[in-house]
Specification:
The protein folds into three domains: 5-117, Acyl-CoA dehydrogenase/oxidase, N-terminal domain (Butyryl-Coa Dehydrogenase, subunit A, domain 1), CATH 1.10.540.10; 120-227, Beta Barrel (Butyryl-CoA Dehydrogenase, subunit A, domain 2); 235-374, Butyryl-CoA Dehydrogenase, subunit A, domain 3, CATH 1.20.140.10. Helix content is 52%, strand content 15%. It starts with a helix and ends with a helix. A hairpin with a 2-residue loop joins strand 9 and strand 10. The protein is α+β, with helices and mostly antiparallel strands. The protein has helices at residues 5-22, 26-32, 37-46, 64-75, 79-98, 101-113, 227-263, 275-303, 309-334, 345-354, 362-374; strands spanning 118-121, 137-141, 144-155, 162-168, 177-182, 189-194, 205-216, 220-221, 265-266, 269-270. The relative contact order is 0.12. The protein has a four-stranded mixed β-sheet. A four-stranded antiparallel β-sheet has the order 2-3-7-6, with no helix packed on it. Helix 5 (79-98) runs antiparallel to helix 6 and helix 5 packs antiparallel against helix 7 (227-263).
Length: 378
Amino acid sequence: MQLTAEQKTIRALAAEIARKEIAPHVATWDREHAFPRKLFTTMNDAGLMGILVPERYGGSGAGYAAYALAVEEIARVDAGSAVTLSVHSMICAAIDQLGSEEQKQRWLPRLAAQDAIAGFALTESDAGSDAANIRATAVRDGDGYRLDGRKQWCTSGRFAAVMMAMFRTGGPGAKGVSAFLVDPHGEGVRVERVTEKLGVRTSDTCDLAFERARVPRSALLGEDGSGFFGAMRALAGGRIGIAAQAAGILAACLDASVTFATERRAFGKTIGAFEGVSFKIARMATDLDAARLLAHEAAALADAGEAFAVAASKAKFFASTAARTHASEALQIHGGYGYTTEFPIERYYRDAKITEIYEGTSEIQQVIIGRSLLGRLE
């Protein structure tokens, strides 16, 4: 992909922040399950938090291709921080696409340039991939709504200024779901549990309980009953981000494997001289190029205003599978060293798996891709 001057600048900024602000601290953050809040102030000052926010609302409006480049560079050093940036950007795009002018004026300048983070609350104990089956309710109450229910695995729930949260306002199925912009620190909302995770530990994940939490009518994002479809559009954009995150993890695995294979010696030669190692690295490099190209194609379609959901599913499916596969291969190349915390490989290995699960599992991506070719077969 031929990059514009703006895209090159954004990629360089993200890489510099990753090198200077993340790399020296990420091992400690990961070990302590710490959310690096100050990091996102730095990203905000650099303009990375407003990549998908139009200029008139304080962002750069640089588009999905720039967003994918920034996410990959951050993920190359820390996948957890990358997913916070990705989800934040996804919510910014959802507000821009679905929100009223009042909502855009209220939230987008804060999210793009005033050091506020956006989060997402969709999943429930019985509704993950089956997102249309959510049970948390939003009932009309005077001039607003009363929210009740519980949400699992809410991204940035403890630190977000605003959450895009899904509640049932009508009957069963997708048409009964609506989206709301909710303050996770408001009255009637509480953190019920902080989730301890295998990987992406620098991303904040928690369960939120809504107990007679009141929000005004203006908190409704889009039309009543359109929330599920709005969330699916938002997730399609987010899948570009997760594909880029997976590519970043894969790039980190490749960098580490090349370095180790050219330095580590066995049987009188560097281990990269053995085809059992060099072939692994060759496949790793090839799949990294393919993952990037798929992510960039989906981003280019999104920037052109064309349908991109299927392309985003292909990108996420391929890139996440490749990241998980090659993180394992990178660990194998490193041998016993890779299994220790002295090297970052074990963290890449832990971080890679989640890319096959969140924002639509690999199985869901294949359903989307299959239906685009075959339709809905019974």
